[in-house]
Amino acid sequence: MIYGYARCSTNESKQDINRQVRELKAAGAEQIFLEYEHGDSKIKSQQRAMLEQAQAGDSIITLEVPRLARSTQQLCEIIDTVSAKHLRLQIIGSITLDCRNGQADPMSEAFLQMAGVFSQLELSMIRARVRSGMANAKAKGKQIGRPPPRIYRLSSSAITPPLPLEV
User: Fold this and answer.
1) Which of 13, 47, 76, 94 is the least crowded, having the fewest Cβ atoms under 10 Å away?
2) Quick one: average pLDDT of 131-139?
3) Which residue from 13, 8, 16 is spatially nearest to 37, judged by alpha carbons?
């Protein structure tokens, strides 16, 4: 069985996951697990379900390392699971970690871990830029975050008593 895994950080109204689904299908995915969860979230229920469902000899495919994890620790845990369950993990157009024979190729495992380090670094850099941009906007006196709710005050003369019901 070939399982595909697609993930976006925010919900479907903000990010389109369909590109990932199309590419996973084109790569041969027979069943695709979709997830709307941040990359470094500790709980990815669909990913966990896919890893639990996969049997020895199965393959898991995804488009990029950041789709699997944005944390090196979480990626290493996924690699351990792939190895223990004798699975094949393929990052389309990039790295393949084939543990179906019971052992991972050390070089492939190392390159996958390095990709995980860069994925985590990328997330840290994005967060730093966002924090810097927010601090800059705040220093300029701009409102940070959602606008405050509007509260309307009605004078007592604007409120009319309800009309009596006719029977």
Assistant:
1) 13
2) 90
3) 8
